[in-house]
Design brief:
Blueprint lengths: L36 H4 L65 H10 L4 E4 L6 H9 L4 E4 L3 H13 L4 E6 L3 H15 L4 E5 L13 H13 L4 E3 L4 H18 L3 E5 L24 E6 L10 H11 L5 E5 L3 H9 L5 E3 L7 H11 L4 E7 H6 L2 H9 L4 E7 L2 E2 L5 E2 L7 H8 L3 E5 L3 H8 L7 E6 L15 H11 L4
Parallel strand pairs: 1-2, 1-3, 3-4, 4-6, 5-6, 7-14, 8-9, 8-10, 10-11, 11-15, 14-15
Antiparallel strand pairs: 12-13
């Protein structure tokens, strides 16, 4: 069994036959359950809470009258009452030793996960994850997307999950910081379930590099702060099924991410025998048309005019539109609220990566992503990911007014940036640029063969007076969107 499970949610539930209640709620005599301090770092003296101070209604949590004896070689599983604060993990013991003595085979975990529907993987590598990633890449029936950073990986996986494809995100804990924004303002707000596998560099059981020291100390607390329940990655084949059952039960009930923390040596070596990067035809076929520039800023159209034209050019029956955060999503809502529209309300820069994940998981859908200059600059690495993996059903439109409009119109650095040339270099099939709205008509009629299309349209700053916000919650917007694409 893993050493700890923290589940912050709305109700108490029992996900395993071995149930424990945190000492902050119910006194657990040390004579009943022995947990080896060398395995989970539990202090020898536990604080006792008088039973008179804590009442656990039997309707909320059933505890057998005769408590089973837990072998000393196993750690107790702790289920936290849902929506209650997750207590901090116990202070680690200072004595370092090998954290994992028994290794599982990558096949054992991946195949068990496949049986539960997990077939999509994305992330940024870590040496702890190497055998795991290699196994996934080697299997042609599984899909692995190599992301530019961990935040993009979360958004790519979110797009796949929206399409009905359970997804796994893999990362080193040093990259967990890159993923905080989409984990808190995309998957949490919209309620998108993902399975996270995060390695534990800086583990107190290891002699690790200095740059991992602090993150190793705060990884567990950081997940708990984001209300993401976690437990350690299984170290024995017998643990795999129970761990995945707990994860999927939570994900299905709460529709939010669940994390597994992987220590060094958890998986036996597995050789890489296949390339994960798809082969593309010669990128010389890509082209840029610069004749859409009129070079008269005063004649540039507004964002709302550009959005209205995009809506006219899209067929809601087979096309979905994802609008980036800020005024873009709000103005799209004001222009026309529709079930095929998804309005991002956070995770700035992640609209394009989520659109990529959705377009790959649903090649029958046309996916239009409407980006902004500030958002594109923030996550420019995703241009390369889209150019590498994206198909012809993905259209990426960047509306560039050269300012951060919704925060006071502070200038971005986009005035001197050719996003179309960047898109071309990254492998997009059609890349257009200009300030003439006719660019949009040309974009939607252009043939990109098997590659994604891109347009960089210069617009003027400013927004509508009394600009409304969507009158639906993000969760309601997503549920309506998923129903529209046939995944409710």
């Amino acid at each position: 069994m893993s050493s700890k499970v923290g589940v912050p949610s709305s109700e108490a539930e029992v996900l395993s036959s071995k149930v424990g209640v945190p000492s902050s709620e119910v006194e657990v005599p040390s004579s009943e359950v022995e947990v080896p301090s060398s395995e989970v770092g539990v202090p020898s003296s536990k604080p006792q809470v008088p039973s008179s101070e804590v009442e656990v209604p039997s309707s909320k949590l059933e505890v057998p009258s005769s408590k089973p004896e837990v072998p000393s070689s196993e750690a107790q599983v702790i289920i936290f009452p849902l929506n209650s604060p997750v207590p901090n993990p116990p202070s680690p013991l200072p004595t370092p030793h090998s954290p994992v003595l028994i290794m599982i085979q990558a096949k054992e975990f991946v195949e068990a996960a496949r049986n539960l529907g997990f077939g999509w993987y994305t992330g940024v590598p870590c040496s702890f994850l190497t055998p795991f990633i290699n196994y996934v890449i080697n299997d042609v029936q599984l899909r692995y997307i190599s992301a530019a950073n961990e935040g993009d990986a979360v958004a790519i996986a979110a797009g796949a999950a929206i399409a009905g494809k359970p997804a796994v995100v893999m990362m080193q804990n040093s990259g967990l910081g890159n993923a905080v924004n989409p984990l808190t303002s995309l998957t949490y707000i919209f309620r998108i379930p993902l399975l996270l596998i995060c390695t534990l560099r800086g583990d107190y059981l290891l002699q690790d590099e200095p740059q991992h020291q602090l993150m190793g100390q705060i990884t567990e607390k950081l997940l708990e702060t984001m209300t993401i329940p976690w437990e350690f990655f299984p170290k024995d084949a017998a643990e795999i099924e129970p761990v995945l059952q707990r994860a999927t039960a939570y994900m299905q009930q709460e529709r939010r991410p669940y994390a597994l923390i992987m220590r060094k040596g958890a998986i036996a070596p597995h050789a890489l025998t296949r390339c994960s990067i798809p082969e593309r035809e010669n990128s010389a076929n890509a082209y840029i048309q610069q004749n859409f520039f009129r070079d008269r800023k005063e004649q540039r159209i507004s964002r709302s005019e550009a959005l209205a034209r995009i809506v006219e050019l899209t067929d809601p029956e087979n096309t979905v539109v994802i609008a980036t955060t800020g005024y873009t999503g709000r103005e799209l809502f004001a222009s026309k609220d529709s079930a095929n529209h998804l309005y991002m309300v956070g995770s700035m820069g992640c609209a394009s990566s989520m659109g990529l994940g959705l377009s790959l998981a649903r090649p029958d859908l046309k996916v239009v992503v409407i980006d902004g200059d500030g958002a594109a600059l923030m996550r420019m690495g995703n241009f390369a990911t889209i150019g590498t993996y994206g198909g012809a059903n993905l259209t990426h439109i960047l509306l560039d007014n050269e300012v951060h409009d919704s925060t006071g119109a502070q200038a971005t650095v986009s005035a001197g940036i050719s996003f179309a040339k960047i898109a071309e270099a990254c492998g997009y099939g059609v890349t257009l640029a200009g300030d003439d709205p006719a660019l949009l008509d040309a974009l939607f009629t252009a043939d990109a063969n098997t590659r994604p299309k891109f347009a960089h349209l210069k617009i003027r700053p400013g927004t509508l007076e009394k600009l409304p916000r969507p009158n639906l919650t993000p969760e309601a917007v997503l549920q309506r969107f998923m129903k529209h694409i046939g995944n409710s």
